[in-house]
Amino acid sequence: MNELKYKRILLKISGEALAGPAGYGLDGAVLSRVALELKSVHDAGVEIGVVIGGGNIFRGMKAAVEQGMDRAMADYMGMLATVQNSVALQDYLERAGVDTRVQSAIEMKEVAEPFIQRRAIRHLEKGRVVIFAAGTGNPFFTTDTAAVLRAAQIDAQAIFKATDVDGVFDRDPQKFEDAVRFETLSYIQVLAKGLRVLDSTAVSLSMDNKIPIVVFNMEVNGNIVRAALGENIGTTVCD
């Protein structure tokens, strides 16, 4: 195998990606495929941190807007949804033979470790996949921002944003056949064009910490390994 370009990554997965065709809840077949994909990346020698959204179970901002819930309370419910997703992925990874730890920003010691930066790094050095749950532990921040924050804290060399399309396009490729994919973008271009990579707070935090964002289609088997090797897939956002 060629030399790895990124030896420590933070993978951001949306909660919806784990829902499968139903669009809600958890799909065992999807979880199994994701676990096996991560196992192949782990076996290649990549140290992996993961942040999963909770939109397949509960989305705080949507509940606040549509149901009139207090935004902070709704966001806390969304954080709990990410814990459910994290524990589910941990189970599938462990069954695939990959040592895994879940660290939560909200203390729940019966379910997960509390997030401790040095402990997380030590787990990664020992070859364990670390799943960071409950976002930042604070309302009004998305799991996109949590992913960049954790990437900075573990000194990840890149943030991998897993999507269902082949990168970042000038418009929705699922609606427009002539949509053009960008191979590279600067952080400023993403912010100025309002492109849907990560939310603006997360992109700004990535820019401040000079962490590249690699956006690619996770539904293509082997793409995470290809991205870790530095192959030209998807879109890279960097300086």
What is the element string, with H for helices and E for strands? EHEHHEEHEHEEEEHHEHE
Class computed from helices, strands and strand pairing: alpha/beta
Which CATH architecture is right?
Answer: 3-Layer(aba) Sandwich
- This entry's quaternary arrangement is single chain
- Tally of contiguous helical segments: 8
Mean pLDDT, nearest integer? 92
What is the topology, as strand order, of the major beta sheet?
A: 4-3-5-2-1-6-10-11-9
Terminal Cα separation, in Å?
A: 28 Å
Shape verdict: globular
User: How many whole angstroms does the radius of gyration measure?
Assistant: 17 Å
Task: Give me the secondary-structure topology.
Layout: E1 8-13, H1 28-43, E2 47-52, H2 60-67, H3 71-95, E3 100-104, E4 113-114, H4 117-125, E5 129-133, H5 143-153, E6 158-163, E7 168-169, E8 181-182, E9 184-186, H6 187-193, H7 200-209, E10 213-217, H8 223-228, E11 235-238
Parallel strand pairs: 1-2, 1-6, 2-5, 3-4, 3-5, 6-10, 9-11
Antiparallel strand pairs: 7-8, 10-11
Helix pairs in contact: 1-3, 2-3, 5-7, 6-7
List keywords for this structure.
globular, single chain, alpha/beta, 38% helix, nine-stranded mixed beta sheet, Carbamate kinase, 8 helices, 239 residues
